[in-house]
Amino acid sequence: MFFAGLGEAAMASSAADAAPAAATERRISWLTLLIGLAAALLVALLRDRLWGVGLAIGSVLAWLNFRWLRKGLDTLVLASTAQQDQVEPKVPMASYFAAVFRYGLLGLAVYVIFIYLQIPLGSMVLGLCALAAATIVASVYEILHPAD
Q1: Alpha carbon distance 9, 110 (integer Å)
Q2: Handedness of CA 93, 95, 96, 98 (dihedral sign)
Q3: SS3 105
Q4: Would you report the helix, strand and coil content of the chain in percent, each value rounded to 5?
Q5: Closest CA to 35 of 118, 141, 106, 109
Q6: 11-21, pLDDT tens digit by residue?
Q7: pLDDT tens digits for 44-76?
Q8: Deepest in the core among 44, 77, 100, 115, taking most CB within 10 A?
Q9: CA–CA gap between residue 68 and residue 83 (Å, rounded)
């Protein structure tokens, strides 16, 4: 079939792209913390201390979410590579559990911090956006400085 060769081509190209992709993932990881904590520090110094704390908490949670997401995707890639010759490959149930657990844990952490520490919810949500900002910055960097 036509799609049978695509798996082999994807594996060959993924091995070649592993180093630039890993560098981009590391860049997104540290940029998430840098952007989020820098914004938190500015807001805490110039405006409101609680909003600054919320931004810092949100950016750390975004960083944890990114790390857990990366580990989950690595697990799925390993599972799919191991089952590449099977007609109906199976996704490990632990992958589904990990995804649900990750979002549940993040939601619980935000709820507990909001209720007990009285940190503004909006500040934590904006802190979670540090991951998006880091991804945009890393993408622009990759466009301006291609790995080729």
Answers
A1: 42
A2: positive
A3: helix
A4: 85, 0, 15
A5: 141
A6: 444 554 567 78
A7: 999 999 999 999 999 999 999 999 888 878 777
A8: 44
A9: 23
Residue 3: both structure tokens together: 């799609």
Eight-class DSSP state of 135: H
Amino acid at 111: Y
Residue whose token pair is 């709820």: 111
Number of Cβ within 10 Å of residue 16's Cβ equals 10
Answer yes or no: are the C-beta atoms of 77 and 147 closer than 8 Å. no
DSSP string computed for 22-70: HHHHHHHHHHHHHHHHHHHHHHHHHT-HHHHHHHHHHHHHHHHHHHHHH
Both tokens of residue 23? 């560098």
First to last CA, the chain: 32
How many residues comprise the chain?
Answer: 148
What predicted TM-score, i.e. pTM, was given to this entire model?
0.77
Matching residue, tokens 């190209």: 13
**Which residue bears the tokens 């007609």?**
87
Owner of token pair 């109906």: 88
The pLDDT assigned to 148 comes to 66
What is the number of other CB atoms lying within 10 angstroms of the CB of residue 116?
Answer: 8
